[in-house]
Amino acid sequence: MSPLTPAALLWGLVLLLMLSDSGALEVGPRETVRFQEEHIRQFREEGVQNYSTMLLQEDKGLLLVYWEVKNADKVECTNKGKQPDTECQNYIRVLQEARDGRVYVCGTNAYSPSCAYMQSSEDGQLKLDGAKEDGKGKCPFDPLQRYSSVMVDGSLYSATSNNFLGSEPVVMRSLANPVRTEFKISWLNEPSFVSMYHVPESVGSADGDDDKVYLFFSESAVEFDSYSKLTVSRVARVCKGDVGGLRTLQKKWTSFLKARLDCPVLDSRLPHVVQDVFLLRHENWRDSVFYAVFTPQEGPVGHSAVCAYSVFEIGDVFSHGKFKTPVTVATSFVKWVMYSEDLPEPRPGACIDDAARTHGVKRSLDLPDKTLRFVQDQPLMDQAVEPLGGGPQLVERGPSSPASWWTAWRRWTGRPTTSCSSGRRTDFCTKL
Fold first, then answer.
1. 336 near 222, Cβ under 8 Å?
2. Which residues face 303 on adjacent strands?
3. Structure pTM?
4. pLDDT tens-place string over residues 150-182
5. How far is the C-alpha of 324 from the C-alpha of 318, rounded, in Å?
6. Looking at 162-230, which runs of residues are DSSP E strands?
């Protein structure tokens, strides 16, 4: 099949909307097969009712679902108050291919995350290659906690929690040139991580720009006046060449910026919350598009929506948009407003490009403290990222699940996906 152009996708959407009732789709799997009929081996853990993702090494045909936990780790986990049959197991959460062909694997390991390189043999078996490593900050402690990771040029970028209680969120790079986020509410405020993607923006860049890693998540908003917590969707990004600051932000991101991600759905009082993201890559990265699935943040989940976002337009918000800044109102209340004064140079959060190099800033270590202090306190953009077309590309009625979200995607684009899920009594592999 030839690559789908944005125009082709748009016309496919138009046809779907013409065939649907009021633009809302009721979709189901094209084919569902019970595992008994295909002689598929069953994997199930009692008390675990849903597997949101199964980690697949497609080139080897391997589905990695199990990594044994040592009895001593299980006992320690149980002594800390966790359930031995569910929480104190080793759930695989990171499966990334390294540059040398090995696989980097991380598991929850009974609330003591660990990672290791594994080598695939000719008979399809994965074997440990070297000693286990500490998985803190790379993999969640809690098997039910949302997380994300991506491997870029031998470095692991991860978004997860950094402690046993799950109270210290972190976005970090490890394995080479380690850096991480500040532990501040203005950076991450009770986040739920969704997806990470690497975009090679240095390719064909006329100004010597750097590659980016984009992170999608939701969090409690700091910028809205509300007596109750309001959840908003975010997209954040960091620069691949970021190694932290010299004095300020030592071994911390100097390029971490975030913006609100909007997907306005009619008759919705509160913002919808991002649940999953897919990057449709184009030969020219500027034409690549993120497709994100959103669901309501209150009440029964009666529908889901898919919004599309231009990679280039997201980058433009971070490169040229205004910032928000906190100001104190009355005695203690903090309100976030648009920052209207002149920005320090180089621009806070910007990647190192040719313009910066001509002024002697060749690495993030060379950035002046004034620039670093600004981004340390004000990483939030004032402008939100708006979807292509101003609203959802499609809306689906009915209970939502990863399978149903990407069923709509398959019907729209004609591209197949496969989803495996396990419930309390039934196990299915669904070809969408």
1. yes
2. 397
3. 0.83
4. 999 999 999 999 999 999 999 999 998 999 999
5. 12
6. 169-174, 179-180, 192-199, 212-220
